[in-house]
Amino acid sequence: MNLLRTFAILAILIVAVGAITAVEVHFIKLPTVDISTRFLLIGLLTVNIIALLTLMFFVGKNVFRLYAESRQGLLGHKFQIKLASIFVIMLLLPSTLLFLVSSGLATSYINRIFSAQMKEPFVRSIELARQFYDMERNRALRAAEDAARGNTQGAYGMTVRRISSPGKEPGDVAREAFRGKSGTEVISRPDGDLIRAAVPDRTGQG
Question: 182-197: per-residue pLDDT in tens?
């Protein structure tokens, strides 16, 4: 178990050095840090990177030692290899995440994905869809107003109905029409969206 104890110590040291490196990189990027402090942090960062590489060398050395023991068929080598693999994964993941976050690589990548140039097509698509829905809602509302006056020529491709009670129709727009307010609504269905318009019937026919 001495080998596993060595892995545990190396894992703790690598995570600690990785955390210190992340903090140093964070402070180096701050615009308020003066030039002398920045050079000092860069020097410490270099030392930390060397220490991190040294620790990784010892990890690799012990992994190779485990591999050699497995080739010799020593008792318990499979269990030690599994534990060593877990230790290596546990120490590499936090160090890698700390480095990515502190160095700004992850942040800059995310910002690049959601930059203005990348967001522009999405914004245009949303705006185009909104304009289309607004146009169709206005068309449906005009057709409903024409139908209420007895003119159904503008309702091409639409279904025009007169209802006598708001309880027979789902949605708020029908109930609002019985209160004297015209309006439109979009109802989402499995086969697509349905745009409905309702206007008060002031002709006294329904």
Answer: 888 888 878 878 888 8
